[in-house]
What we know:
Elements (H helix, E strand, L loop, with lengths): L10 E4 L1 H15 L3 H17 L21 E5 L3 E8 L2 E9 L11 H7 L1
Parallel strand pairs: 1-4
Antiparallel strand pairs: 2-3, 3-4
Amino acid sequence: MGDEDWDIVYxxxxxxxxxxxxxxxxxxxxxxxxxxxxxLLDELTDDIKSLQRMPYRSPVYDRPYLQNGKYCYLLSHKRxxxxxxxxxxxxxxxxxxxxxxxxxxxxxxxxxxxxxx
Length: 117
């Protein structure tokens, strides 16, 4: 990557389902500690905003039910995975996952989509 790559600012769109998932994580943690929940929300928000610059720095999110190379992920707050794709200068955040949960809770998993309907 050349110096010009630092100048690119990507637009970020957070899918409603990903936003809902972030709220679920916040609400769950707030039952234990409001301060910890606030820190989680701050860190997730900061990490999502950081994707405006160099979103390709993160590894590919590789799952058998996803198109190879379609998604990347960024680890946030030690145990949350921000899953996103990059299309035409826009970063689409499609899921925010607790890494301690199984892939069955992954909203990108076709099995999960069927069960949520």
